[in-house]
Amino acid sequence: TSGSDENDVVVIGGGPGGYVAAIKAAQLGLKTTCIEKRGTLGGTCLNVGCIPSKALLHSSHMYHEAKHSFASHGVKVGSVEVDLPAMLGQKDKAVSNLTRGIEGLFKKNKVTYVKGYGKLISSSEVSVETLDGENTVVKGKNIIIATGSDVRSLPGITIDEKKIVSSTGALSLSEVPKRLVVIGAGYIGLEMGSVWGRLGSEVTVVEFGPDIVPTMDGEVRKSFKRVLEKQKMKFKLETKVVGVETSDTGVKLTLEPAAGGEQTILETDVVLVSAGRVPFTAGLGLDKLGVEMDKAGRILVDHKFTTNVPGIFAIGDVIPGPMLAHKAEEDGVACVEFIAGKEGHVDYDLVPGVVYTHPEVASVGKTEEQVKALGVDYRVGKFPFMANSRAKAIDDAEGIVKIIAEKESDRILGVHIMSPNAGELIHEAVLAVHYGASSEDIARTCHAHPTMSEALKEAAMATYDKPIHI
Ligand code: FAD
């Protein structure tokens, strides 16, 4: 069996980090096995993360548009209703097509796929309890830990995935709750809050910190919050949940100001706990091998993704860095390149971040607050989508492009976009920053008309000179 042959690379975990590492390793001519316990490939991202959430964001946006915007575009429809089972079915179909697609890629690239729970028994052996109930040992010269992350639970709150749900439960609610409370104003909470808000829930977001999505540029965050409020999302910032009581009729939350003070009661039907994610290493046997971790439980690695135990590597959500699928993929490729004796590189300053609400918010590089803190002299160029012809033509013009460039050299340090499709628009900026472009480089690049991308060009013009259309 595959278990008794020695592999060049054994990957534990078949998420975006692990499956990409496995495919890349095989492409580099390394004999590779990937072990995954879930029964399907693709990890958190494909099964209960990026993909199902984007499927629901799209479907709920379509419903919302049909209900609230079609008429103004001259499209008459009868009454518009949500068919939730069909909507969830569409999401499930997207997930199963994609996860099966990865299995196909494994076959094509000759990656051996072992379905089961992997546990390290030495720096070159993984024992696997397979999903068929068998035990086998998979040997490898190099072992990559790509076991990802799991939902962070909050003390005193038990997730039952019915009334008190994690993001996983929030992807499959059996009916649209009348009221939904989201604990945590990170991107996952805002995305899932948007989904259910569009389908009719009254959404209240409770956040311990002073603001939503703390990594976002302050100015963009402010407009973003205003947009979400216009969409009827309510926020209770600097507020902590100190008590939760479920009953047949719903959930009663006891809230308190973050700094302490008078308690209030908030009643709701469903609570989504989205207060971050934690690295997942349960049952991996790391202690016994002495693999070093930090206080947050993340595996410590050097720039070649090597742990302190030779032959054991780690990538993705289980190591420090942004917990994002595309970051995990970059880690996977670079890690395997090092194993193959090549050079690998991930620039963590240039990992784009996207919030897939409507409008979307996407960014790359530094925020204005970060640039200020560095003491760099800088210029800011902005351009609103209200002045972008395409956005006006389609009547979807809420948003802005903000570019921050070093004053002296005009080199772009950060780009922040709020707009429909910002998650697609950002990549021109990612490439520009990657190649050390100046704002003038973008401004002097011909952009097709009429496109949303022209807003980036105009913001670039505004950075070192003047825009045309405002
Ligand atoms: P994971 O995807 O978590 O995969 C790890 C895999 O390892 C799992 O399948 C697990 O079953 C398996 N495993 C663990 N231990 C073992 C073991 N001992 N033996 C065998 N198998 C094991 N990121 C984005 O970039 N864009 C998004 O839009 C986005 N949306 C998200 C929405 C939600 C609701 C959530 C929860 C996450 C989202 N993310 C998004 C984050 C993204 O899913 C993660 O960053 C990404 O999946 C991390 O990849 P990974 O390979 O490190 O780990």
TrEMBL record:
**Residue limits of the Pyridine nucleotide-disulphide oxidoreductase dimerisation domain?**
351-460
InterPro entries (UniProt xref): Class-I_Pyr_Nuc-Dis_Oxidored (IPR050151), FAD/NAD-bd_sf (IPR036188), FAD/NAD-binding_dom (IPR023753), FAD/NAD-linked_Rdtase_dimer_sf (IPR016156), Lipoamide_DH (IPR006258), Pyr_nuc-diS_OxRdtase (IPR001100), Pyr_nucl-diS_OxRdtase_dimer (IPR004099), Pyr_OxRdtase_I_AS (IPR012999)
- An example Gene Ontology biological process: 2-oxoglutarate metabolic process
**Residues the entry annotates as binding FAD:** K54, G118, T147, G148, S149, D317, M323, L324, A325, H326
- Keywords from the named record: Disulfide bond, FAD, Flavoprotein, NAD, Nucleotide-binding, Oxidoreductase, Redox-active center
Q: Which residues form the FAD/NAD(P)-binding domain?
A: 8-332
How the cofactor is bound: the record states: Binds 1 FAD per subunit.
Annotated NAD(+) binding sites: G184, A185, G186, Y187, I188, G189, L190, E191, E207, G276
| Required cofactor names | FAD
Cystine connections: C45-C50
Q: What else is known?
A: The active site is a redox-active disulfide bond.
Family membership noted in the UniProt record: Belongs to the class-I pyridine nucleotide-disulfide oxidoreductase family.
Database matches in PANTHER family: DIHYDROLIPOYL DEHYDROGENASE 1, MITOCHONDRIAL, DISULFIDE OXIDOREDUCTASE
- Protein name listed in UniProt: Dihydrolipoyl dehydrogenase
